Amino acid sequence: MKSQVKDFEILYEVMDSRHATFADKLADGKLILEARKKQMAQLSPELILDARLIQLKLQMEESLKPEQTTNSYSFINFLQEYSSILYSDTDIFAKDLSIDSTFLNKVLEGEEEPNDELLTKLIAHTEHTFKNLINFKAAIWYDIYTQEKTRKV
Predict the structure, then answer these.
(1) Single pTM value for the model
(2) Which of 18, 63, 80, 129 is deepest in the core (most CB within 10 A)?
(3) Which residues neighbour 91 within 8 Å (Cβ) at sequence distance 6 or greater?
(4) CB-based contact 56:122 (threshold 8 Å)
(5) 148 Cβ contact partners less than 8 Å away, ≥ 6 residues apart
(6) At what angle do helices 75-86 and 101-108 cross, to 10 degrees?
(7) Domains, the chain, with CATH or none
(8) CB-side exposure of 55: number of CA atoms within 13 Å?
(9) Which residue has the higher pLDDT, 22 or 14?
(10) Rounded to an integer, what distance in angstroms lies between the CA atom of residue 105 and that of residue 79?
(11) pLDDT tens per residue, range 88-115
């Protein structure tokens, strides 16, 4: 058994001989991180916004997969994320949705349940937001909300 461990260590060294020491590996990691930061700093705000929206879309789709038994994200979490990506103030988001800002804030805080009007307006808003970005099924909001309610029963 001891021989197998030593053989594995030798194999590892042969496979990844770029780093003579662990310190070298950390130094290379820091260089990669710095290069990544420089690259990210050059991205336009529009590209960053698009990337955040795509990330949200993928998380929402992932949450609906049948193998997901528990979600770290709920409808409210997704709504909060969507709002924070697009707006610095929830009152502006409420105005764009043409709904009462007090009601929206209560939904975002989990004090109120979203109603059909909010879901309908949110779907329309999402369709408009994603229209030029990627293929996005805006009704996913309804799917996430109903799946969450079904799981609670």
Answers:
(1) 0.71
(2) 63
(3) 101
(4) no
(5) 71, 74, 75
(6) 120
(7) 2-41 (no CATH), 45-152 (1.10.260)
(8) 9
(9) 22
(10) 11
(11) 999 999 999 999 999 999 999 999 999 9
